[in-house]
Design a protein that fits this description.
This protein has 171 residues and is an alpha+beta fold. The protein has helices spanning 54-57, 59-71, 99-114, 130-141, 143-146, and strands at residues 4-8, 21-25, 41-46, 76-82, 86-92, 123-126, 159-161.
Amino acid sequence: GRDAAVEPAARSESSPHHALPVRRKLPHGPPPFPVAGPVVQFVTINAEKRGGRPFLDAAGPMLDAARFYHERGRCFLRLFLLMPDHLHMLVSVPEGGSVRAVCGAWKRYVAGHFGVRFQADCFEHRMRNGEELSETWWYIRNNPVRKGLVGDADGWVFWIGYDPRTGRALR
């Protein structure tokens, strides 16, 4: 898949979103470092047809299904955020597991039980360090703000997240 990360936007006092991160391209290929500990992936899943609000119309069941996967140990969700026609998550899977397999199973369940239709596959990007992970977490949380859906990230209710140290829900 494509690799992308986020970097702080250039500051401009004329923009209400001057401090929000923006995407930048990263080089492709395997990381030039050994991977130790749980790998965290930045995943994006799109609705079959972009536009409208198919994910928000099914937000309750979609969030419940994500919570179920987290609570049963299929994955660890640092952050899972629904937008009207796509979603973002920061997720880890147990050793030997596959993010694509977990996402595929979750999509089949949601599609089969709640009629939500998805594009094939998903976009995934491995978080390379703590700084990138933190920047991406804030990028995701502020996506509804950048899209003009709310005035600040706390006004967006379509998300769940868990503290990686304690495992407790963030709200």
